[in-house]
Fold:
Amino acid sequence: MMSKEMEALILKRHKTEKVKKKNQIPYAIIILVIASIISVSLWRNNHSYVVFWITGISFGIVLRYSRFCFAAAFRDPFLVKNTKLMRALLLSLMISTTGFAIIQYGYLKNNSMDYAHIPGMIISVGFHTMIGAFIFGIGMSIAGGCAASVLMRIGEGHVLPWVTLLGFFIGTVLGAKDYSFWYEKIIKNAKIVYFPKYVNLGIVFIVQMIVLIILYKLMIWYQKKSIKR
Amino acid sequence: MKVRDLDCLYEACPIPLIKAIKELRRLNSGDILVVHSDESCVGVAMVEWAEQNNYQVKLVETEVGEWEIYVQKP
Amino acid sequence: MFKNHNYYGKDWIKSMMQWLKKPWPYWVGGVLLGVLNVVLLAISGTVWQVTNGFLLWGAGALELVGFEPFKWEYFKLYNNRYEEIILNHNIFINKYTILNIGVVLGSLVATLLASQFKLGKAKNIRHILFAFLGGLMMGYGSRLTGGCNIGSFFSGIPSFSLHAWVFWIFITLGAWVGTRILIKFLI
Structure:
């Protein structure tokens, strides 16, 4: 969507399309070739690392190409009344909910409900979750991106995410060092609440999908009603 | 019709977006704002915002890794 | 005839470059991220998580200069995550760090394919300070909850654990406060 004035302005400023001539694809191919060689070498040596290597690279490509930003997904609904990213995030949660449900169902058929070993991230909930997530939310907003975003922006060539990364190193180490304090005060009394322990996994799955779908529809409604007339 | 340039190079998203919205409020109808940014998500976010709010918008890649986002106030 | 063939070749490269520059819609990203996390869990038994890798590098660096971070209670409490890595001295190269390096590489490849890679710089000291403080807070907060937005939330919701929903509520609150701070100091 472009007015004639805008079109004229752009033409005036950018007669030569110099950016169309710079081609960095050969570098990309070289890196992909090296990455493939590493993959094959990892696979040949029967290393489970090859899965993490290829998946990590895939995550990186997807994050960059889709301009996916978790920080923006949380922030845009109240900052610019836009829920597109949050909806995309909800989609990803619906898909992973389905996949994880299948995986966990398969696991629990033959194994006991040991939270540390059930496939997934099943950890305790309590005030430490609230405080930690809150602090994380603030940090994410002032740094301009979350943990994955830092990695993505480093790959793009930006320099600030390296500073954020340094902050991450120090912050995680300090957090681990201080953990004993928090553990004594809060965490050791915290429980793990794994829904399928109390309700059949199939029902949990369906309820969670319904909740995610309702949130999705809510996001559509919220954005629609904020459009200026 | 005024043309205003906003240099947001080296600023992390969402700062360029917030600055642009603030600046657009000051402009008059028909004025064009040109946002300079080197963040890939800013371009996409600005286009999304402009379309949502019925502003004319065009994302132009000017240098390697740099964009200009033209936004015209309706 | 040779001239025509050359022209056709250049055109093809140009349109390929344009096609590689195009960003994907958000929903495509969402779908793929969801699928990838499922695939990762199905094959490796581990979910996507980022800050564990950062912690190991940080602690590993401390170890190199003479400290003994792995004696901290944290690593005993999270035995199932770190025991194997610590015992085998894989502090710097392990599944968590390989995931992270992979993400950087993937992003780099994607940026190069779009021919948009540019070495950046920092605008001023305030931006650097906020970037650092942000990382510090995220790092610390992630240890309290047991993971970051990826490990705790993105991988926690599909794992049917309540902590992820609490995380969701409070990260949103934090984002609201953080954005207010950002607007006050950096706009």
Notes: The helical segments of chain B are 15-26, 40-52.
